[in-house]
Amino acid sequence: MVDAKIYPSPTDPPIEHGSILIHEGRILAVGPRADVKVPRDAKIIDCTGLVVTAGFWNSHVHILTPGLIHADKLSPDETTAQLQAMLTQWGFTTVFDIASVLNNTNLIRHRIATGETKGPRILTVGEPFWIKTPIYVKSFLETNHVNIPEIQSTLEAEERVKQQVHDGADGIKIFANSIEPNVILTMPADMARGIVAEAHALGKPVFAHVSNNKGIEIALESGVDILAHTTPIDEPWSAAFAQRLVGAHMALTPTLTLWEYESRKGSISAADLEQVMNRAAEQLNAFLRAGGDVLFGTDVGYTDVFDTSEEFKWMSRGGMSYQQILASLTTNPARRFGLSARSGRIANGFDADLVVLRADPSRDVTAFSQLRYTIRNGIVIYNSGSRLEP
After folding, report:
1. Region class of 299: left (phi > 0), else alpha (psi between -120 and 50), else beta
2. Angle of helix 189-201 versus helix 213-222 axis, rounded to 10
3. Coil, strand or helix: which one is 108?
4. I need a surface site. Which of 68, 158, 319, 367 has the fewest CB within 10 A?
């Protein structure tokens, strides 16, 4: 890759007119073009006028769309097309799926690993843990013949954690809150503690879906690692509250545009929606000012909003600089999920997971959504110039 503006990491200065040499899925060299010797037989990608960053992470997705949920009935090309529409055309080379059917997600991961399907690295929690199926997913699960059990006891939950990790889960997800008709249920604290303790004993991170600040208290008490949402229907986050989250070493996927998506289901006014969105951005800002670890996430797969540009706009309104947004896409999740020795930066020996942008995010954060190429392990898995490059 030659003549690009390269952002090696969120904190390193960009390399103007830089080159990246890739061999067997790894970065062999990176630097100014004059310093990188390109072999005569190398395949060249001309990046003149383009910007290169490390491949993006989306730390809140769901491999649970109608187009993916029954992968055994799909051809590899059909799976590739769905993953492209949802993930790879937006630069995601790694995703954390935080609620799906584990056996189905494992099948998709196998197809990607064997090269049958082009897609991102997928980390997964498999089936989530809830005391009652949330009302907003119940009909979808029934229509698609998916059964995700409700937890009846702490002991049952702990045994299920062991089984899911044995079956390939990379983390665990609890629903600290479950939204039901006219009520928001909260998982008992002892059950949440048991699930989190079992997951941690097996070396796995725990995500928490929260709908209100009561759910966050359960997440805090049980030792959850990642909050999957802000809580804009509840009280603002004070500086002291945000500091509690950070002091508990929690990360946050803000999923700000989720609230706009949810508003479509009701009769919320434009003024009320603006208030909700502003509160979500303010909660992100409080967390950020407390020194919190932000991970980019969109809830895509639950939502049908694949375009990431609005999420970047709202993250900016929440006070995030382009460097902080880039960190949420790269170094923060790589460090949080134990892959910082090989992922999240452009450096010698690192995985050749790269994003090529048409514009510079230092000038406009929506440039993070303007993709030219997505490259995983040195292979182009998305090319905006054609459907897919061989």
Report:
1. left
2. 50
3. helix
4. 319
